[in-house]
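Minimal example, chain plus adenosine-5'-triphosphate.
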Amino acid sequence: MARNIGSQYTTERVLGRGSAGTVWLGRGPDGPVAIKVLREDLAADPELVERFAHERRTLLGLEHPCIVGVRELVIDGDGTELALVMDLVSGADLRAHLERHRRLAPADAVALTVDVADALAVAHRAGVVHRDVKPENVLLDTSGPAPRALLADFGVATLIDEPRRGTASRVVGTPDYIAPEIVEGLPSRAPVDIYALATVLYELLAGFTPFGGGHTGAVLRRHVTETAAPLPGLPADLWELLQQCLAKAPASRLRAAELASRLRELQPALRGLPALDIETGEEADPGRRGRDTAEESVEEPAAPRGAVALVQGTVTDPDRVTHTRMRVPDAEELAGGVRPARAPRPRAGRRRAPPRPA
Ligand SMILES: Nc1ncnc2c1ncn2[C@@H]1O[C@H](COP(=O)(O)OP(=O)(O)OP(=O)(O)O)[C@@H](O)[C@H]1O
């Protein structure tokens, strides 16, 4: 049933649900919009409401073709309803796109990453850190000749996380994309977004994230102690960039604008390259990675990739749960030095045919 959000907007139907609330297709004075109505328990948190009002100007000021614009932040009535009114994006999200294609050709993966890096450059310049860059938060506008990536959900992770920051042993984010400094309890600054974006790029190319798989503690530990396995067949320049942005030390990562420009320089050389042809243990036995070595003895059931509840007990759609508040592994768990993650192999027995003469 249609319902009013503030004085100008009405909701029409549910577009989807996430851990922070429900996204509705809505209507406003300038036409259709997407409206994210935050969960009731979040709206009932006075600190969050205050921050919501405080962040208003920054979030409304973030404008770029690759950012899902926030048009209004609505605090309704006595503050029992909080909603973000956003531009409506026509296509699916990058997670759905990746599930359909499994791996993207390097040129396509890089083009989408450049869009997100451009969005981050604008946000970082405005002092906004996204803190939850992942394929679910990248929407694809498919109305033009080539899909354009738009980064959504700016400010949401910060709004929701802040009151609970006092709990030093908890972190908020999505395990596969979380930067090592967050795992170590350091503040989330702009380089966490670069690390997450590099993880997304790796995933678009490889079909899996560099440190994902298995239970949350194992994933967090890998971010701190392992280095990403090289991807066979990936042009060396692109691999170098990826490694630089996945550096453990935040200061060693590129800034967003620099990442965008370096990726743009590589684009001409990537044109026409097919998606990587690699074999991983997970393809034959999904979830195997989580059972490697020490993890074998852990009884905890494997979480779906990148997925546990932001605030426990708030799962709205079990297939699409994407946040977590996690326990930070203790020093002993994190010990063990940096070692390379298990390397993917080129697919055996499937040589690509040499190019045929015209
Ligand atoms: N501006 C928008 N235009 C169109 N669809 C949107 C928009 N924002 C979100 N959606 C859709 O609404 C759904 C829920 O989005 P939401 O941001 O709440 O969840 P999520 O990002 O998938 O998960 P989480 O919030 O837990 O990280 C998604 O399927 C997304 O594609």
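The first strand starts at residue 3 and ends at 5. Residues 94-278+285-334 form a domain with the Transferase(Phosphotransferase); domain 1 fold (CATH 1.10.510.10).
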